[in-house]
Design a protein that fits this description.
The chain is globular, with a radius of gyration of 20 Å. Strand 12, helix 6 and strand 13 form a beta-alpha-beta unit. Helix 2 crosses helix 3 and helix 2 packs across helix 7. The chain has two domains: 146 residues, Quinone Oxidoreductase, Chain A, domain 1, CATH 3.90.180.10; 140 residues, NAD(P)-binding Rossmann-like Domain (Rossmann fold, 3-Layer(aba) Sandwich), CATH 3.40.50. It is α/β, with parallel strands linked by helices. 25% of the residues lie in helices and 27% in strands. The chain is built from eight helices and 15 strands.
């Protein structure tokens, strides 16, 4: 097994702030230690992957490195009693693809505690259309639906054409919520409507920079993926006892807000951390995605590329141009 080779994307440092990406042959014995060796069938592209693939030290400290925070495939070897050769599994989050060799490769080796059995009703390809983005979206929906019901009013989803936003929109629409979607891409109106958006707002319409402490209560709940002024406006526009979830900072990590929405309207702000989600909750969320939360048009959301095709997609997502999900086919 140690002499077995496989294809992988490797990011290498060429000089100060200079990095290159290429597809190489690696050996299995070059993989990090772990109880479970997985032959990867599918991966997916996330913004964090693009940062890692560009030499971002906040994501990946040491190079050369193989990115890919998502992987789905078949167990080939396991020293853990929890998994056996032939098991179909999902690995997302934890340190995969950050400082541990990731899913942009035909093999990964990881701790057994990172591995989730593929739930019944979900295929390996489908699981990567979800990936970390879909899992984060589902965690956001789970937090929101504990207090906000479909009849309580409209729910706002920001960054709605991105991976997390588009899947949150699709899941919420599947569950019967009326959803308003925020997008800076006028050409994406048809895409968002097909996902189930009842209303589409521009970024300008979703941003109110007057500094007023409160705005008219419009939203029963919010799934925010961008942060910054859009999140602040959404919080100030959330109605009584509404729930706002927060999982991203692509617009800004700053939150220009005061306490009034929280103490005068009882608004709850819930942070979403999918990377370190406990395994019991992780399994619960994946099972929901495999059953009642699975969008009917899920397969339409995944655009397939090869390892070689990732180069263009990495540049596209860094520029904010990705719509929906890009999945990476590793199986031959």
């Amino acid at each position: 097994m140690t002499e077995k080779t496989f294809r992988a994307m490797v990011v290498e440092e060429k000089g100060e702030k200079s990095f290159s990406r290429r597809i190489v042959e690696k050996r299995v014995d070059q993989l990090p230690d772990g109880e479970v060796l997985v032959k990867v069938s599918w991966s997916s592209l996330n913004y964090k992957d693009a940062l890692s693939a560009s030499g971002n030290r906040g994501v990946t400290k040491n190079y050369p490195h193989t990115p890919g925070i998502d992987a789905a495939g078949t167990v080939e070897k396991s020293s853990s009693a929890s998994f056996h050769p032939g098991d179909k599994v999902i690995v997302t989050s934890y340190d995969l693809g950050m400082n541990t060799s990731g899913g942009f490769a035909e093999y990964i080796r990881v701790p057994a505690g990172w591995v989730v059995p593929l739930p019944a009703g979900l295929g390996l390809r489908e699981s990567m259309i979800f990936g970390t983005a879909g899992f984060t979206a589902a965690m956001s929906v789970f937090a929101l639906t504990r207090s906000v019901q479909p009849g309580d009013g409209q729910v706002l989803v920001t960054g709605a054409t991105g991976g997390v936003g588009s899947l949150a929109l699709a899941i919420l629409a599947r569950l019967g919520y009326s959803v308003a979607a925020v997008s800076g891409k006028p050409e994406a109106v048809e895409f968002l409507t097909r996902l189930g958006a009842a209303r589409i707002l521009t970024r300008a319409e979703a941003t109110e920079g007057s500094g007023r402490p409160l705005l008219k209560g419009v939203w029963a709940g919010v799934v925010d993926t961008v942060g910054g002024e859009i999140l602040a406006t959404a919080i100030k526009s959330t109605d009584l006892q509404g729930v706002v979830t927060c999982c991203g900072n692509v617009a800004s990590p700053e939150l220009p807000i005061n306490v009034f929405p929280f103490i005068l309207r009882g608004v709850s702000l819930v942070g979403i951390d999918s990377q370190n989600c406990p395994m019991a909750h992780r399994t619960l969320i994946w099972n929901k995605l495999a059953t009642e939360w699975k969008p009917e048009m899920l397969n339409d959301l995944g655009r397939e590329v090869s390892l070689e095709g990732l180069e263009k997609e990495i540049e596209l997502i860094l520029k904010g141009g990705q719509v929906g999900r890009v999945i990476v086919r590793l199986e031959q």
